[in-house]
Design goal:
The chain has a 4-stranded mixed beta sheet, sandwiched between helices. A two-stranded antiparallel ribbon has the order 2-6. The protein contains 5 helices and 6 strands; from the N terminus they run ββαβαββαααβ. About 30% of the residues are buried. By secondary structure, it is of the alpha/beta class.
Length: about 150
């Protein structure tokens, strides 16, 4: 399930589905079982979720909610295109690559990876790089466009 609540964000649902199908094909990751929900949210809504569920009022890139395989729900990834647009401008990265990184990061959380302590962060960064390289090689990085 892909939902776009972020005005101005353009992509195809098929490209998001293909991205996740490609991630599930990478050996060594225990992908979440069941339907995934991917939601693109405006900055204010995304920041409110961050405050509500993590007691942090700062904007963030991605928030992940674990699913329940018994009910057929794999989890939810809430991404902030606004955060991606601002961050990629400040760091010279492409918007599509930045937003794809957020989706990969959320998926890896649903696979059980964490980024709380330094050792976990190192594993998460390695997982991100492995997934992004796989997506680049298989040409499965979605084309995102953000118009104002």
């Amino acid at each position: 399930l892909v939902r776009n609540d972020c005005p101005g964000l353009h992509f195809t649902n098929q490209s998001i589905q293909e991205l996740f199908l490609s991630l599930y094909a990478i050996p060594g990751f225990d992908g979440p079982q069941g339907e995934l929900s991917v939601v693109f949210l405006p900055e204010d809504v995304h920041t409110q979720l961050h405050l509500q569920f993590h007691d942090n009022p700062e904007p963030t890139d991605v928030i992940t909610f674990q699913g329940d395989p018994k009910t057929g729900f794999g989890g939810e990834i809430c991404a902030s295109p606004t955060f991606a647009r601002e961050y990629c401008r400040a760091n010279g990265n492409g918007f599509s690559a930045e937003l794809t990184l957020y989706l990969v990061h959320g998926w890896l959380h649903l696979c059980g990876l964490s980024d709380i302590n330094p050792g976990d962060c190192q594993n998460m960064r390695g997982g991100e790089q492995r997934c992004l390289e796989h997506l680049r090689k298989s040409a499965k990085i979605p084309s995102f466009r953000f118009s104002s």
